Amino acid sequence: MLTVGGRFRRPEPRRRVRDFVRGLLAPLPSKNCWTIAEHAGDSGPDGMQDLMTRVRWDDAAVRADVRAFVGEHLGDTEAVLVIDETGDLKKGRHTVGVQRQYSGTAGKIENCQLSVHLVYATDTAHAMLDTALYLPKSWSDDPHRRTRAGVPAQVRFATKPQLASRMITSVVTAGLPCRWVAGDEVYGNDPRLAAGLRHHRLGYVLAVSCSHQVTTGLGVHRVDALAAGLPATAWQCVSAGRGAKGHRWYDWAFTALPHATDGQDGHHWLLIRRNRRTGELAFYRCWSPQPVPLHRLVAVAGRRWRIEESFQTAKTGLGLDQHQHRRWTSWHRWTTLVILAHAFLAVATASQRHQPAGLIRLTSNELRHLFHVLIIEPTRRRGDPLLWSIRRRRHQARAMTSHYTRQALTEP
């Protein structure tokens, strides 16, 4: 709260933000303005709902404060900026950004909302930095839907790589120490994103599809065709990082691409990963201002999985996907406070200097549990549970009456 408190001019919203983040850190069965307000001991949900909608504060400025906080405590010149999107399944069509589209979270086309996230990953920690809601053309080109959802007039359609590029540019402009960028095929197949990273002098390891083409001394070839022609001696077994059940061992091969040149000096490679059991291949386009060995590129590729861990922590423990907000501003505010809570957990777990014998280091989930039991629970205010039960049932009765009344106007 010392990091972001200055963004809230009055004491009431500062207190509500503190209580809101405490609610996100608490083991509530579900997280929304009602449950968080009850946890905080408020007399009703109006204050928390106002914080998401009517109270004046700048969520982008709060995320900038979080970025500075992460840089101060986790800053590393070899850090990796990891970009990826996640999907939240939604019903209906009125929640901002929702349409039927492919969601990697669901693994198929679903009615969902997509957002691009940026994670700061070092050898010892990883923290969420920034987010951008993906607004499909069906939304960006529909003035009526934009108005109902409160989408700002200056917001226009942007692809996911364009959203990622804007967030990375903000990080570089702010001076956050980093050297690499990692991402999946959505970002690796966009040449403009790669060109922008080279302009910023950021090395990258970006996944590409098997049909991606590269230029060699013998012409232009698909990357899967190049992989098929590699001799057995080209492959090396290298760990992509430590996991909960051991090292993640894969076979790797890489080849320089001296003909892939542009106005930026540097070194291009094609990196290929082979699963040691199934033989499945994955391909990466890589670039660095200076020559780097294979194991360094492999380490950056392995660091990309940190964003999946961040998503898991933020969704299962902090309610990233449990919001019930339909409008642009409230979505960004909810997500920003989740990012703030995640940054707190990341910095707190990284602050451990020594690993006790016979114990693993504190995880984010374990720290969240201890923080709630030892810090939040003994000090929080308690509302009357019977009053909250009455309030919920009254609200549900009004909603049901409203639905039936609306239906009676159109149905026989």
Automatic annotation (TrEMBL):
| Cross-referenced Pfam families | DDE_5 (PF13546)
Q: Where are the transmembrane segments?
A: none
Which InterPro entries is this protein grouped with?
IS701-like, IS701-like_DDE_dom, RNaseH-like_sf
In what residue span(s) does the Transposase IS701-like DDE domain sit?
Answer: 8-214
PANTHER family linked to this entry: TRANSPOSASE (PTHR33627)
Q: Which NCBIfam families does this one have?
A: transpos_IS701
Instruction: Provide the protein name.
Output: IS701 family transposase
